[in-house]
Write a structure and sequence with these properties.
With about 500 residues, the chain is of the alpha/beta class. The protein has two domains: about 20-165, Rossmann fold (3-Layer(aba) Sandwich), CATH 3.40.50.720; about 200-430 and about 455-495, Dihydrodipicolinate Reductase, domain 2 (2-Layer Sandwich), CATH 3.30.360. It has 14 helices and 17 strands. It has helices at about 30-45, 65-85, 95-105, 115-125, 140-150, 175-185, 205-215, 245, 250-270, 280-290, 425, 435-445, 455-470, 485-495; strands spanning about 20-25, 55-60, 105-110, 130-135, 160-165, 195, 225-235, 300-305, 310, 315, 335-340, 350-355, 360-370, 390-395, 400-410, 415-425, 475-480. The strands form three sheets. A nine-stranded mixed beta sheet has the order 16-15-14-13-7-12-11-8-17, with helices on both faces. Helix 6 links the parallel strand 5 and strand 6. Helix 1 packs across helix 3 (about 95-105), helix 6 runs antiparallel to helix 13 and helix 9 (about 250-270) crosses helix 13. The protein is globular and about 80 Å long. The two termini are about 45 Å apart. The protein binds 6-O-phosphono-beta-D-glucopyranose. The site of 6-O-phosphono-beta-D-glucopyranose has 5 residues, from loops. GO terms for molecular function: glucose-6-phosphate dehydrogenase activity. Keywords: Carbohydrate metabolism, Glucose metabolism, NADP, Oxidoreductase. This is Glucose-6-phosphate 1-dehydrogenase. Belongs to the glucose-6-phosphate dehydrogenase family. Pathway: Carbohydrate degradation; pentose phosphate pathway; D-ribulose 5-phosphate from D-glucose 6-phosphate (oxidative stage): step 1/3.
């Protein structure tokens, strides 16, 4: 079994030993992901001493280039990103030693992902262990894996490994995800495929497991007898920006729900695994995802943003974004009610919402506990007793807060609402992290805990499949940019006598 340094880390990728020697082959070396996230992550890993001496990178792409042009180009983008406060990677300066370590190991190969000779050329250059990273558009995932398999690049000689990292979106519905799984598994074993979901690279997402399973206080009440409902929110203020071409056929449901939102759902809802071994954790996550009932269209609200004011700025509606159809009905917002049919959660609704151009940025899981069993304070001037709420915040702050009722000081028994909160930054040093460090490192050491297994991916798609099948006819509700989403989403909860918590992070 591969050595896991610590699966629940209190910093970025913070193993203690360098990964084993290997070549990282990046298909899509000229792309955005390579520039924005992979290079800064490798730089941070080099800075932490986690890359081995025998490490090299082979960038493959269709454009003309050489080792030197790749090195110069990526040095330039590293510098640009480090100065851009809106990029994931911003640093006061770039450490020449760490960047030099990465830069001097960069090599370039011009190649067409659809031609067998590209993979023969890769084979001539790659000896020993290798990680093949598909940093390309989804339509190439199957083609690249076929190319690797047919060239014999996925054969693992004694003492070496050959692994493939596949980005999202993994399929666009259940049938296509099943087809892609079947296709890649013809070329290699499940243990060789690392399906990435970048939410699992977020330390705060990983720490949900620690919070739940390293504290005896929570597990007894983490169940249907004590929990009223759970709300999972991923609200963004950004619009689709330049990604209209990708977003039009995708929409918020496919883009966020069966992958990112389901990862949060699994973390908060899974049973305790027997160990933190990758298979034990992934089995529990898959079981939870498989218990999610297919979502009927009446439990879903689709929204699309219109022009409005977001973060003090006038912004256009979705239909006026570049590469978007003027009469598009693609959803930029989705709200869902989910039922999980298992012993722990039967009868507890899970409400999920995610949208672009909303009033604030907030990724959060809110656990709403059942109210006190009877009104002990009936004869006193109390406010309506609201439930205890626990909020696990992933973005923009990283922390956990609890809201509950206490007595307001004074002669009357008046109940007031208060909160206590913990923020990671108050306790732990910030480590440089753009979010892919742990994932890259784990792949190199062979720890698949934070990657999605085929059954987990397919369970996510199976739950949303009824919605996708009914999509072409489905209505889209409009909401102004900078708002909390369409009113129809409020009605979804109002029908159950509940309401969404605010996106501003204020006490409910
Ligand atoms: C990506 C989606 O996977 O996740 C984007 O394609 C979305 O549309 C992004 O904006 C959200 O990730 P994060 O880490 O910024 O919350």
């Amino acid at each position: 079994m591969p050595e896991r340094i610590t699966s629940l880390k209190d910093g970025a990728a913070c193993g203690t030993k360098p990964a084993p020697p290997c070549t990282l082959v990046i298909f899509g070396a000229g792309g955005d992901l390579t520039k924005r996230l992979l290079m800064p992550s490798l730089y941070n890993l080099a800075g932490a001493g986690l890359l081995p001496e025998g490490f090299s990178i082979l960038g493959v792409d269709h454009g003309e280039g050489s080792d030197q042009t790749l090195r110069d180009g990526l040095t330039k983008t590293m510098e640009e990103f480090s100065k851009d406060p809106t990029s994931e990677f911003h640093a006061a300066s770039i450490d020449p030693k760490s960047w030099g370590f990465v830069r001097d190991r960069l090599h370039y190969l011009k190649g067409d992902f659809e031609k067998p000779e590209t993979f023969q050329a890769v084979k001539d250059k790659v000896k020993g262990s290798a990680v093949f990273y598909c940093a390309v558009a989804a339509r190439f995932f199957g083609t690249i894996v076929d190319g690797l398999g047919q060239a014999g690049l996925l054969k693992q000689e004694e003492g070496t490994f050959r692994r493939v990292v596949i980005e999202k979106p993994f399929g666009s519905d259940l049938a296509s995800a099943q087809d892609l799984n079947a296709r890649i598994l013809k070329q290699g074993d499940e243990s060789q495929f690392y399906r990435i979901d970048h939410f699992l690279g977020k330390d705060t997402v990983q720490s949900i497991m620690a919070f739940r399973f390293a504290n005896g206080l929570l597990e007894p009440v983490w169940r249907r007898e004590y929990i009223d409902s759970i709300q999972i929110t991923a609200a963004e203020t950004v619009g689709v920006e330049e990604r209209g071409g990708f977003y039009e056929p995708t929409g918020a449901l496919r883009d966020m729900v069966p992958n990112h939102m389901f990862q949060l759902l699994c973390m908060v809802g899974m049973e305790p695994p027997n160990s933190f071994d990758a298979e034990a954790v992934r089995t529990e996550k898959a079981k939870l995802a498989q218990a999610v009932q297919p979502i009927p269209p009446e439990d879903a609200v689709r929204g699309q943003y219109t022009a409005g004011t977001c973060e003090g700025r006038q912004v256009p509606g979705y239909r006026d974004e570049p590469h978007v159809d003027k009469s598009s009905v693609t959803e930029t917002y989705i709200a869902l009610k989910l039922h999980i049919e298992n012993w722990r959660w039967a009868g507890v609704p899970f409400y999920i919402r995610t949208g672009k151009r909303m009033t604030g940025r907030r990724t959060e899981i809110a656990v709403l506990f059942k109210p006190a069993p009877y009104k002990l304070f009936e004869d006193t001037p109390t406010d309506d007793l609201r439930p205890t709420v626990m909020r696990i915040t992933i973005d923009p702050e990283h922390g956990i807060g609890t809201e509950y009722n206490v007595k307001v000081p004074g002669p009357e028994m008046k109940i007031g609402r208060v909160s206590t909160s913990f923020r990671y930054n108050d306790f732990f040093a910030d480590t440089p992290n753009v979010g892919y460090e742990t994932l890259l490192y784990d792949c190199m050491i062979g720890d698949a805990t934070l990657f999605q297994r085929a059954d987990n991916i397919e369970a996510g798609w199976a739950a949303v499949d009824p919605l996708l099948k009914g999509w072409p006819q489905a209505d889209v509700a409009f909401y102004p940019a900078g708002s909390a989403g369409p009113k129809e989403a409020d009605e979804l909860l109002a029908r159950d006598g509940r309401h969404w918590l605010g996106i501003d992070g204020k006490t409910d």
